[in-house]
TrEMBL record, chain B:
<dbReference type="GO" id="GO:0000407">
    <property type="term" value="C:phagophore assembly site"/>
</dbReference>
<comment type="similarity">
    <text>Belongs to the sorting nexin family.</text>
</comment>
<feature type="region of interest" description="Disordered">
    <location>
        <begin position="1"/>
        <end position="79"/>
    </location>
</feature>
<dbReference type="InterPro" id="IPR042130">
    <property type="entry name" value="PX_SNX7"/>
</dbReference>
<dbReference type="InterPro" id="IPR042131">
    <property type="entry name" value="BAR_SNX7"/>
</dbReference>
<dbReference type="GO" id="GO:0032456">
    <property type="term" value="P:endocytic recycling"/>
</dbReference>
<dbReference type="InterPro" id="IPR027267">
    <property type="entry name" value="AH/BAR_dom_sf"/>
</dbReference>
<keyword id="KW-0813">Transport</keyword>
<comment type="subunit">
    <text>Heterodimer; heterodimerizes with SNX4.</text>
</comment>
<feature type="compositionally biased region" description="Gly residues">
    <location>
        <begin position="115"/>
        <end position="129"/>
    </location>
</feature>
<dbReference type="Pfam" id="PF00787">
    <property type="entry name" value="PX"/>
</dbReference>
<dbReference type="GO" id="GO:0035091">
    <property type="term" value="F:phosphatidylinositol binding"/>
</dbReference>
<feature type="compositionally biased region" description="Low complexity">
    <location>
        <begin position="1"/>
        <end position="14"/>
    </location>
</feature>
<protein>
    <submittedName>
        <fullName>Sorting nexin 7</fullName>
    </submittedName>
</protein>
<dbReference type="GO" id="GO:0015031">
    <property type="term" value="P:protein transport"/>
</dbReference>
<dbReference type="GO" id="GO:0000422">
    <property type="term" value="P:autophagy of mitochondrion"/>
</dbReference>
<keyword id="KW-0653">Protein transport</keyword>
Length: 450, 550
């Protein structure tokens, strides 16, 4: 890419909000697993074109997954899965795509990218990664990370993750993200060199702020509650769905036994034999049809899971706000107390208890010069404090404004995606019903011919 | 007990030349052949000394004009207990050892004696002119007069004898040849069914000793031999067991319909659980109706008593009959002798036995599979019930998704109801039928055993003769009678077997077709639900799109 990517250190730059273009802007979930099945990032591309980051439209796909063995940090042998990321640029005119970059990344690198984005874009609802370990597993589903079905669903999830970032008006411009797609070696070092880990807010600090903040923006408080509810209800839904899937599996599979027994029985029946035999075949078809049906449903579950994990991303933004707000409140408090101290020193009245006051009383008054010096220091501190408070205030307001803009964007996206997911669920059910009707109609015909 | 006369061989395709009986036999023969094969072939396959004269059939009281029709009905009666007069006479002495069969034969023997006087012109000379039966029938006549057990049977028969009067004929006793043809076929046509039984209203009775359930049995009939056209009685499971026992005694090689199990298999504590009672009631209803539909069993006297007698009448009737000890003795001997019978089992019965064994395996598996499917569907239903409401819960926190989430929830709920319906359809249509045939397969094995046992008696006598063990004088005659007995038992079984197989195929076919139908209906309902959801979403989308347009 010709243009120099923007400085990743640039924070909180309000990005001009671009319309997100087509609702199916490459963010649909069940991406086709074919290697060429990368979606255009549609609106993201438009945005980027407008912003001169990437001149041409980009197609990103996570096209393959491979088992690898290597040595980990502790020099022990380990097996992991690597994913092939391919980037294509699409010529405007003829729509042909040219492979520009192709590299392998493993899950931990995706995590690294996300953690970086979380630090540098705290006001953005950062897209979540697909689950690290298989959860909401029903009995036939493997909890093994190496299981090919799990790997396949993860591949799709990772692709989705990248597409979400690429279509985000702000995140897509990040240099590290760009390098993630293009710089195979040394990318990890590059990320670490940014020192983002140091800039990360400590969890403890954040927790403290959450408890002690006095005046957070009500919208964020509400958002926090919403994200808790969202997480809880989607978890519940996924759990029940898994149980329902399990039971449905059982119903279908037991019918397969009919196939076997009918076939054995048909051997001793003269008139009924043929009918039994062919009916048995249809029972087998019925029993085996559930595998594909439930596989499709797993993709639906993955769509819901994404929003389950998004709840955490929302909470992260809220936490940041609380932290900033708390910081602000502490700074204001601090400033107020300094001002008071100053006032006390100046007027000589001691309104509040202070250790200095006590020691002064006990060990004697300080000299006017000492007092003057102290007042001066305080006044400097107060000035500094006031500056800081001003900038913190500004920062805080900027944060709220930008964050809320992104949250609105997120809400739109969420509504669209969830509607789409629910509709796709209906489509799946319809397909399942049609298959069922066909199989049983065939079976009925066989039975009636017995 | 109603007699169980045999078809003379004249009624089977082989012996057309049965002499003086030809005119009657011929008529009967053609009629019999007009009916479905099993009936025509019921009876001894070969002419022989054991053949019962045509008379006993008339004996059962259908009277002159109704003779053929009556014949036809009796023709359907199994050979299981040899009604052959000669055999009966010979076997009378062994009535006790062979259990109830002997008594039946004895009574038949008695009955065969009577028509000689009663029927006019229809039954030329007792069995005497019947080919090969002369000697034995003479013997029969002599012996018959000595027997005086089973007063009931005697009464029954004398009552039957009185039904010579045309006027008291049941409407099912037409006299024209055409109607006689219909008569033979009446079992196949439900419109001509003349016995309607329902089992309902289970009631709990508590006594100091026990608690038990009785079922109300309503019988509606147009048959003449029933005193009235409607009966209502109450019976408990024990009574059904008694009836089944009597039927098995009377017709050892007929396929008696199965009774529902005594106890629930899964070790249910509560015997009087509602579902259990309802399942049992339905099975008992089926049991009685199957008997009613059976060409021979439907005329069984114990069956009639069961349907009509008041409680005290039934108890006193039950008290008659061989005691427990004799029945036990019979069982022991049966088991011992059946092993011998297996060795000399004719080929067709070997095939039959193979079929029964395989069928039993398969139907048991199918029963297990079907029960399992029901269980899985129930568990699916239980989980699905929870699934819909979660979407409603979710809609509470989503402003923009309220409608779609509620719609999805209602779709899921509707599918839930459809699942429930499918489940109950399965329980109604498939499970009881399959289970009944599981019980039938056990029955069949019992029938095979009894057949083998009958054969074993013969074989042991033959053995005795060969090695000159016992009284060589009487043996040939005994053997002759036994041979006929075996013959008749085999034929009865063969005929009933064909009938049973046909019914089985129909029932199984119907049950599975119903199951398929239930599933189709279930999927169609779900399909409609989701499709209408999709349509409404599309419409909404179009509406929104058109609203957005400037």
């Amino acid at each position: 890419m010709e243009q120099a990517p923007p400085d990743p250190e640039r924070q909180l730059q309000p990005a001009p909000l671009e319309p997100l273009g087509r609702s199916d802007a490459g963010l649909g979930v069940a991406v086709d697993e074919e290697a060429e099945g990368a979606r255009e990032e549609g609106s993201g591309g438009d945005t980027m074109t407008h912003n001169n980051f990437w001149l041409k439209k980009i197609e990103i796909s996570v096209s393959e997954a491979e088992k690898r063995t290597g040595r980990n940090a502790m020099n022990m042998q380990e097996t992991y899965t690597a994913y092939l990321i391919e980037t294509r640029s699409v010529e405007h005119t003829d729509g042909q795509s040219v492979l520009t970059d192709s590299l392998w990344r493993r899950y931990s690198e995706f995590e690294l990218l996300r953690n970086y984005l979380l630090v540098y874009y705290p006001h953005i609802v950062v897209p979540p990664l697909p689950e690290k370990r298989a959860e909401f597993v029903w009995h036939k589903l493997s909890a093994d990370n190496m299981d090919p079905d799990f790997v396949e669903r993860r591949r799709i999830g990772l692709e989705n993750f990248l597409l979400r970032i690429a279509s985000h008006p702000i995140l897509c411009r990040d240099k590290i993200f760009y390098l993630f797609l293009t710089q195979e070696g040394n990318w990890k070092e590059t990320v670490n060199e940014t020192g983002f880990q140091l800039k990360a807010d400590s969890r403890l600090k954040a927790l403290n702020a959450t408890f002690r903040v006095k005046n957070p923006d009500k919208r964020f408080t509400d958002l926090k509650h919403y994200s808790d509810e969202l997480q809880s209800v989607i978890s519940h839904l996924l759990r029940v769905r898994a149980r329902v899937a399990d039971r449905l599996y059982g119903v279908y599979k037991v019918h397969g036994n009919y196939g076997r027994v009918f076939s054995e029985w048909s051997a001793i029946e003269k008139e009924m034999g043929d009918g039994l035999q062919s009916a048995g075949h249809h029972m087998d078809v019925y029993a085996s049809s559930i595998d594909d049906i439930l596989e499709d449903e797993e993709h639906y579950a993955d769509q819901l899971k994404e929003y389950l994990f998004y709840a955490e991303a929302l909470r992260a933004v809220c936490r940041k706000h609380e932290l900033m707000q708390y910081d602000l409140e502490i700074a204001a408090q601090d400033l107020a107390s300094k001002k008071q101290q100053c006032e006390e020193l100046a007027t000589g009245t001691v309104r509040t208890f202070s250790l200095k006051g006590m020691t002064t009383k006990l060990f004697g008054q300080e000299t006017p010069e000492q007092r003057e010096a102290r007042i001066k220091v305080l006044e400097e501190q107060i000035n500094e404090g006031e500056q800081q408070l001003k900038s913190k205030n500004l920062e805080g307001r900027e944060f709220v404004k930008n964050a809320w803009a992104d949250i609105e964007r997120f809400k739109e996206q969420k509504n669209r995606d969830l509607k789409e997911a629910l509709i796709s669920y209906a489509v799946m059910q319809i397909s399942m019903c049609k298959k069922g009707i066909q199989v049983w109609t065939n079976a009925k015909e066989c039975f009636s011919k017995m | 007990m109603r007699g169980r006369p045999l078809l003379p061989s004249s009624l089977s395709s082989s012996a057309e030349d049965s002499g003086p009986f030809l005119h009657l036999a011929g008529v009967r023969n053609s009629q019999a052949r007009a009916s479905s094969p099993p009936r025509a072939r019921w009876g001894c396959a070969r002419p022989g000394p054991a053949l019962v004269p045509a008379v006993p059939r008339l004996r059962s009281g259908r009277g002159a004009g109704a003779g053929p029709a009556g014949e036809a009905r009796e023709a359907r009666e199994p050979m299981g207990t040899l009604g052959g007069a000669g055999l009966a006479a010979a076997a009378a002495g062994r009535a006790r050892t062979l259990g109830m069969e002997g008594e039946r034969r004895a009574s038949q023997a008695r009955s065969s004696g009577l028509p000689a006087g009663g029927a006019d012109g229809e039954s030329p000379g007792g069995g005497t002119t019947f080919p090969g039966s002369s000697g034995s029938s003479a013997l029969l006549q002599a012996e018959v007069l000595d027997l005086d057990e089973d007063e009931d049977d005697l009464e029954v028969f004398s009552k039957d004898a009185s039904l010579m009067d045309m006027n008291s004929f049941s409407p099912m006793m037409p006299t024209s040849p055409l109607s006689m043809i219909n008569q033979i076929k009446f079992e196949d046509e439900p419109d001509l069914k003349d016995l309607f039984i329902t089992v309902d209203e289970p009631e709990s009775h508590v006594t100091t000793i026990e608690t038990f359930i009785t079922y109300r049995i309503i019988t509606k009939t147009s048959r003449g031999e029933f005193d009235s056209s409607e009966f209502e009685v109450r019976r408990r499971y024990q009574d059904f067991l008694w009836l089944k026992g009597k039927l098995e005694e009377a017709h050892p090689t007929l396929i008696i319909p199965p009774l529902p199990e005594k106890f629930m298999v899964k070790g249910m504590v509560e015997r009087f659980n509602d579902d259990f009672i309802e399942t049992r009631r339905k099975a008992l209803h089926k049991f009685l109706n199957r008997i009613a539909d059976h060409p021979t069993l439907t005329f069984n006297e114990d069956f009639k008593i069961f349907l009509t007698a008041q409680a005290w009448e039934l108890s006193s009737h039950k008290k008659q009959g061989p005691g427990l000890l004799s029945r036990m003795g019979q069982t022991v001997r049966a088991v011992a002798s059946s092993m011998r019978g297996v060795k000399n089992r004719p080929e067709e019965f070997m095939e039959m036995n193979n079929f029964i064994e395989l069928f039993s395996q398969k139907i048991n598996l199918i029963d297990k599979i079907s029960q399992r499917i029901y269980k899985e569907e129930r568990e699916y239903f239980d989980e699905l019930k929870e699934y819909g409401p979660i979407h409603i819960l979710w809609s509470a926190s989503e402003e923009d998704l309220v409608d779609i989430l509620k719609d999805v929830a209602s779709c899921i709920d509707r599918c839930c109801k459809a699942t429930e319906k499918r489940m109950s359809g399965l329980a109604e249509a498939l499970l009881p039928v399959v289970h009944e045939y599981v019980l039938y397969s056990e029955m069949l094995m019992g029938v095979m055993r009894r057949r083998d046992q009958i054969q074993a008696e013969l074989d042991s006598k033959v053995e005795a003769l060969t090695y000159k063990k016992a009284d060589a004088d009487l043996l040939p005659e005994e053997i002759g009678k036994l041979e006929d007995k075996v013959e008749c038992a085999n034929n009865a079984l063969k005929a009933d077997w064909e009938r049973w197989k046909q019914n089985m195929q129909n029932d199984i076919k119907l049950a599975f077709t119903d199951m398929a139908e239930e599933n189709i209906h279930y999927y169609e309902q779900c399909l409609a639900t989701w499709e209408s959801f999709l349509t409404s979403q599309t419409n909404l989308h179009l509406e929104e799109a058109s609203e957005d347009k400037p």
